[in-house]
Write a structure and sequence with these properties.
single chain; about 230 residues; alpha+beta; Gyrase A, domain 2; four-stranded antiparallel beta sheet
């Protein structure tokens, strides 16, 4: 673990440079520590794959106080487990089906089967409000980011970039390889809880038809199913 100050109002606590649940568990343990034992003067906590950035008011809390608080964290203690979700995806909306099949040598159904056989861990949010960064994607279906991003990617588009998979919460430019779309709303600024999925949650994708996609999209009361399995 490395603690590094960034300017007068921030510091970053970094762990091993890797995408893994074990490393992310340490990040979440640190995040949970500061949420359960908040220090006056901390204004924001920003978790990522392998680090936690702390934004603070230097007139209300000193850097040495932060270091002392960090030294008290029990990284072996199990934190609150995240929720497990089942997210519907229509793979008929794949924009990069041809690229997936040509690059992997697999049939489209084999790509879908591999993708839906994995439960993905939500490591962080960023880029857009509610954009989910998840991993890890099966090595057989990994594709690198596109050299030329699309100017428009529809909300709900599900993509792959290397070992990561993600869901676009709103329409935006984007360079991930799109293999489907979900009708689930992942960012609603009018809702009391604008983000239904949180960092540390897990998602299992399952296939739906275009008709099911349209039905769910129209149903404003539809809520994503929470999985209670192991």
């Amino acid at each position: 673990m490395e603690i590094k100050r960034i300017g007068e109002q921030a510091c970053i606590i970094s762990f091993k440079e890797e995408i893994s649940k074990s490393t992310h568990h340490q990040v979440m343990a640190l995040l949970g520590h500061f949420k359960s034992q908040p220090l006056v003067g901390i204004t924001d906590l920003i978790p990522s794959y392998n680090a936690l950035t702390i934004i603070f008011n230097p007139f209300r809390v000193q850097f040495d106080q932060l270091r002392e608080s960090i030294s008290q964290v029990d990284f072996e203690k199990a934190g609150q487990p995240g929720k497990k979700w089942k997210m519907p995806v229509c793979y008929d909306f794949a924009l990069d089906q041809k690229d997936f099949c040509q690059s992997t040598g697999l049939s489209w159904q084999e790509v879908i089967d591999l993708y839906t056989s994995t439960t993905y861990h939500v490591y962080m949010m960023g880029f857009l409000p509610g954009f989910l960064y998840m991993g890890e994607v099966d090595t057989k279906i990994r594709l690198p980011r596109k050299k030329t991003p699309r100017k428009k990617v529809e909300a709900g588009s599900v993509g792959i970039a290397g070992a990561q998979t993600g869901v676009y919460p709103i329409m935006s430019p984007g360079g991930w390889n799109i293999l489907g779309r979900t009708p689930i709303t992942l960012f609603d600024p009018t809702d009391e809880k604008p983000f239904p999925v949180e960092i540390g949650d897990e998602i299992l994708f399952y296939p739906i038809s275009q008709q099911e996609f349209k039905t769910i999209l129209k149903d404003k009361k539809y809520r994503m199913e929470e999985s209670h399995g192991s």
